[in-house]
Write a structure and sequence with these properties.
Helix 17 packs across helix 18. The chain has 767 residues and is an alpha+beta fold. The protein folds into three domains: 150 residues, 2-Layer Sandwich (Aldehyde Oxidoreductase, domain 4), CATH 3.30.365.10; 193 residues, Aldehyde Oxidoreductase, domain 3, CATH 3.90.1170.50; 330 residues, 2-Layer Sandwich (Aldehyde Oxidoreductase, domain 4). It starts with 16 loop residues before the first helix and ends with a helix. The protein is 29% helix and 24% strand. Strands 3-5-1-12-9-10-11 form a seven-stranded mixed sheet, sandwiched between helices.
Length: 767
């Protein structure tokens, strides 16, 4: 059978872009029901302090003010939940109140909610709230928080340790290190990041005359938010809450879960019986949204005399912030499981400690633990190559898991189904002209520049957020409607799902309508996270499409006087093979026997195992030793995503993820000062990559079909952010190592940090 014109593998342009480019998108900020009121959140200016309101009456008396809520006014609400349980691990879960009462535990902690006719009136009233503050000792660094005598984030418990989790075999790992010819040690920092999507979070709360609440909000899936709010915070039946998510401009993991403002908007709408709107400005975003990463990791690698890896020992200290967000404890543990990377490491032991600090809570951010793992092992392998005096590519190739070893169970328990790591590394080297690097480094030297080249061969686990349901129906006009519980935040779901449907029904994308983001219309849904929309949701769409195609053949069989086995689908018709006898979908929908049971189909896919996308990122940089400025002069990516659904959208995903990784490698860093203030709390202080910072990417795939997914896909949404950090940092350190034997540099590699490393290298080099 010939590939469908719009089916899997075709480089289709995104069908949703025309509407968005014409300004016809509909975001939370565009939702303005009649009688709309506006809300703002008053936040703590202190990292840790006791407080009490001394005068709320003045704020409540301000013009246009309808409601002022403090913690005492919503005492009936439950705390925001942490939903994670870890095997054999006790997690200390303190209350995460919707509004802090008596004690604020980080700068930005929400303490009051003000509703008024306009946002300016709400802000004026918030400023009029009189508060008496009594500052308390604070700690904003996880390693410091573990030290004896450190300030307590929670005074009712001893120490700031939230949990301690271990993976692997400690005894066997210690034995392997005892017999090692070489032991390589490295400490790396994955600094704290701010997600910075274009479309900041927002919510509009409405309450009808029957007391049913509707929340329109920017999310990565409304069902989980509805259920968590109803069951844990609002304490109402899920039937009383409808959650709607319209267009979303970026999520990156941090829009997966409920936030305080969602519950507050629901309460305010119910009490006032008018719509209440809260939209985060950038200050709200920096001070109120969960942040990402923030790990300090010490690692040791045991190596034998032939350069083969024997064991890996890892100790992770992960900052949780002041409260536990929904998935927070899971994130560093996910990274711990991927610590061995693509290497045949027989034994390992990974300890992860979550720590409370007086900072904004940390949760999932693009990659959710796997970027941290890839950065650790890829930097460690480069350090091992430098210590052993061997080429970093040769050391990798010697220790890669071989394709013939698949399926391969890692020492941390992950089951890799497929992959040819040496194959895509070799292709990346070829595409980047690795062999010609020595010539290029001479040219850089003549120009007064340092030059470095770096590899990162990564693997990640994703695609297992399931089950996901897909419901497909044929409409009377011959178009097809898909209802699914995933949520597009800019990835192109409407196009991707249309391609999967086209593979079975051969209808053009404009005849497919995708419905997401409404808990009243779609019964269930896990939302979008962990690169699971195509591996899991897409598999369900493909299954439902096959079932609907079979139903349509059965319906058309009598009218065409043929057996269903003699029929085929092509061009939005069912036809008798080898003839011109055919029925259009609209005609089939009009048949007397075309009951809803036969003109619709549903399927659910439950993944039994994660998928494991992998690949090689290769970066080449020039460094100006006089200023420390870094320029990426070449960047090559060769990925294994199993099967490519749409090459154009795939390239966009990889480019976007890689740029986020470059941002972390070169400039992004959420910084707290000694007073506990977030000094990078605006886009004036927190650097983001721009077009001038982005190289021209060379991207291709060298796919090995996934053995555990019915579509053969491996997931791609997070991969770019996973391979890019270590590739860029390895290239920078390579340049500094060649010139001054600088062994390590922490992210972000700002010009100042690079210049300082160069100056220190020069000093040591001349002693």
């Amino acid at each position: 059978m010939q590939p469908m014109k719009f089916g899997v593998g075709q480089p289709m342009l995104r069908k949703e872009d025309e509407s968005l480019l014409r300004g016809n998108g509909h975001y939370v900020g565009d939702h303005a029901p009649p009688g709309l009121l506006h809300a703002t959140v008053l936040r703590s200016p202190h990292a840790h302090a006791r407080f009490r309101f001394t005068d709320l009456a003045a704020a409540r008396a301000k013009p246009g003010v309808h409601l002022v809520l403090g913690g005492e006014d919503i005492a009936d609400l439950g705390p925001l939940p942490c939903m994670i349980e870890l095997p054999d691990t006790k997690i200390a879960v303190p209350p995460y109140p919707v509004l802090a009462r008596e004690v604020a535990r980080h700068v930005g902690d929400a303490i009051a909610f003000v509703v008024a006719d306009s946002i300016d009136q709400a802000r004026d009233a918030a400023e009029a709230i009189a508060i008496e503050w009594s500052p308390l000792p604070h700690v904003t660094d996880a390693a410091t928080a573990l030290a004896p005598g450190a300030p307590q984030v929670w005074s009712d418990r001893l120490g700031n340790l939230c949990f301690e989790n271990t993976i692997g075999d400690k005894t066997k790992t210690e034995q392997a290190f005892a017999s090692a010819a070489h032991i390589v040690e490295l400490t790396v920092i994955n600094q704290r990041l701010v997600a910075n999507y274009l479309d900041t979070r927002g919510v509009v709360g409405e309450c009808d005359e029957d007391g049913r609440i509707t929340l329109t909000l920017s999310s990565q899936g409304p069902h989980a938010i509805r259920d968590l709010l109803c069951n844990n915070v609002l304490r109402i039946a899920p039937e009383r809450l409808r959650v709607v998510t319209p267009d979303v401009g970026g999520g990156f993991g941090t829009k997966l879960f409920p936030y305080r403002e969602y519950a507050l908007a629901a309460v305010a709408a119910e009490r006032l019986r008018r719509p209440v709107k809260w939209i985060a400005d950038r200050s709200d975003h920096f001070l109120g949204d969960c942040q990402g990463r923030d790990n300090r990791t010490r690692a040791r690698l045991a190596v034998d005399q032939k350069g083969r890896f024997l064991a890996l020992d890892v100790d992770i200290v992960a900052d949780m912030g002041a409260y536990l967000s929904v998935y927070a404890p899971l994130i560093p543990v996910l990274g711990a499981g991927m610590a061995p990377g693509v290497y045949n490491i027989p034994v390992s032991y990974v300890r992860t400690r979550g720590v409370f600090t007086n900072t904004i809570p940390v949760d999932a951010y693009r990659g959710a633990g796997r970027p941290e793992a890839a950065y650790l092992i890829e930097r460690l392998v480069d350090a091992a190559a430098h210590d052993l005096g061997v080429a970093p590519d040769s050391l990798r190739k010697k220790n890669f898991i071989r394709p013939r070893a698949m399926p391969y169970r890692t020492a941390t328990g992950k089951l890799y189904d497929s992959g040819d790591f040496a194959g895509h590394l070799a292709r990346a080297q070829e595409a980047a002209d690795w062999a010609g690097f020595n010539k290029r480094i001479k040219q850089s030297k003549k120009a007064g520049k340092l030059r470095g080249i770096g590899l990162a061969t990564y693997i990640e686990a994703c695609g297992n957020n399931g089950p996901e349901n897909a419901n497909l129906r044929l409409e009377r006009d011959g178009t097809v409607t898909l209802l699914i519980g995933t949520q597009s935040t800019g990835q192109g779901h409407h196009t991707a799902y249309a391609q999967l449907i086209a593979d079975e029904l051969d209808v053009p994308p404009e005849q497919v309508r995708v419905v997401q983001g409404d808990t009243d219309v779609i019964a269930t849904g896990l939302g979008t996270g962990g690169s699971s929309s195509i591996p899991c949701g897409g598999a369900s769409v493909a299954g439902a499409s096959k079932k609907l195609a079979s139903n349509l053949k059965s319906l058309a069989a009598d009218a065409l006087e043929a057996s269903p086995s003699d029929l085929e689908i092509a061009g939005g018709q069912v036809r008798v093979v080898g003839t011109d006898r055919a029925m259009k979908f609209a005609d089939i929908a009009a048949l007397p026997d075309a009951t809803p049971d036969l003109t619709s189909a549903a399927d659910v896919f439950t993944p039994g195992e994660a998928t494991y996308p992998n690949g090689t990122h290769l970066a080449e940089v020039e460094v100006d030793p006089a200023t420390g400025a870094v320029e990426i002069v070449n960047y090559v990516v060769v990925d294994d995503f199993g099967v490519t659904l749409n090459p154009l959208m795939l390239a966009g995903q990889v480019h976007g993820g890689a740029v986020q990784g470059l941002g972390q490698a070169l400039m992004e860093h959420a910084v707290y000062n000694a007073d506990g203030q977030l000094v990078t709390a605006s886009l004036m202080d927190y650097a983001l990559p721009r077009a001038a910072d982005t190289p021209a990417f060379s991207f291709e795939t060298r796919n090995v079909k996934c053995a555990t997914n019915p579509l053969g896909v491996k997931g791609a949404g997070e991969a770019g952010a996973i391979g890019s950090c270590p590739a860029v940092m390895n290239a920078i350190v390579d340049a500094l190592w060649r010139a001054y034997r600088v062994r390590h540099l922490d992210m972000p590699a700002t010009a100042e940090r690079v210049w300082q490393a160069i100056e220190e290298g020069r000093r040591v080099h001349t002693l």
